[in-house]
Amino acid sequence: MTGTRFAAVLAEAASAGRAVGAFTCYDLLGLEAVVRAAQARAAPVIVLVGPGSFAAEGGDRLVAAFRAAAAGADVPVLLQLDHVADRELIARAAAAGVDAVMADGSRLPDDENLAFSSAVAKELRPLGIAVEAELGRVEGDEDLAALAAAGALTDPAEAAAFVRASGVGCLAVSIGNVHGHYASTPALDWDRLERLRDAGAPLSLHGASGLPDADVRRAVSLGIAKVNVNTELRAAYFGALDSVGVHAEGLDLRGLGEKVIEAVADTVGGKLALLGWGPR
Ligand SMILES: [Zn+2]
To answer: What is the pLDDT of residues 52-69, one digit of tens each?
Structure first.
């Protein structure tokens, strides 16, 4: 899927040996944190909206607000609906103006996943919207941090055939990575990742929260083009709320918001550094 803004941003970063950071945002404080960190490092970023956030009441307004806020940034800020299996929700996101959709058929048998991912890619390609699929299974919950053990790993030969047949523009791989908290010390399958490099589409790594810094760097050096981060940002957000406490003096909402933004931006900046984006 060439020709999308998403594809261009990933390709340009990869040509410089970098990966694009994708960060889940739940509100405008999170969005502001991501934009500030991205601008400080002249990094393009992807803002992820979870299917729960988008499907909830106000989800369309949230995406509209993110789009408006992103348009004012001096770096590319792309919007992606993350982990969605519902075709109607995908159509709504396309109408809302997202740049990419992650069509997650990883719970389906492989042939149904292929049919699903192909159909979504075919539907969104004319609109210039990129489609990311998942082959193998990245376990764990996106919105709630819980211990997770690695799911079914992505088979390199199957991945190449899947990309060819589906026409997707990005593939999420399972190489020992999980969403949420790692149940044991993460042990990524580097040999598998090297063999996945020839899959024919940029590869994404979900579940970067809790991976040692060296692992994230190594994944990028082995061709990971997009790295998704969620849990660590939520931990930073809640950490900032904890530091203020529930009986905040003076009911200073602006001060509270600024603390949240700084904490999340700090975490985003740290991840961007690992992905190859130095300070301006
Ligand atoms: Zn994910």
So the answer is: 999 999 999 999 999 999
For 138-160, the pLDDT digits (tens) are 999 888 888 888 889 999 999 99
Residue 233 token pair? 């940002």
Active site residues: 82
Sign of the CA dihedral running 106, 109, 114, 120: negative
Q: Is the pLDDT of residue 71 over 80?
A: yes
Q: Which helix (H) or strand (E) holds 241?
A: helix 231-244
User: Ligand 1 center to residue 254 CA distance, Å?
Assistant: 31
Question: If pLDDT is split at 50, 70 and 90, which confidence band does 222 have?
Answer: very high
Closest by Cα among 207, 135, 197 to 176: 207
Span from the CA of 102 to the centroid of ligand 1 (angstroms): 9
Phi first, then psi: what are they for 43, rounded to 5°?
Answer: -105, 135
CA of 159 to the centre of ligand 1 (A): 18
Q: Is the pLDDT of residue 2 over 70?
A: no
Q: pLDDT for 196-216, tens place per residue?
A: 999 999 999 999 998 999 999
Cα separation, 158 vs 98, whole angstroms: 29
Q: How far is the CA of 219 from the centre of ligand 1 (A)?
A: 16
Contacts for 54 with CB less than 8 Å, ≥ 6 apart: 60, 62, 63, 81, 84, 89, 92, 93
**Is the distance from CB of 64 to CB of 28 less than 8 angstroms?**
no
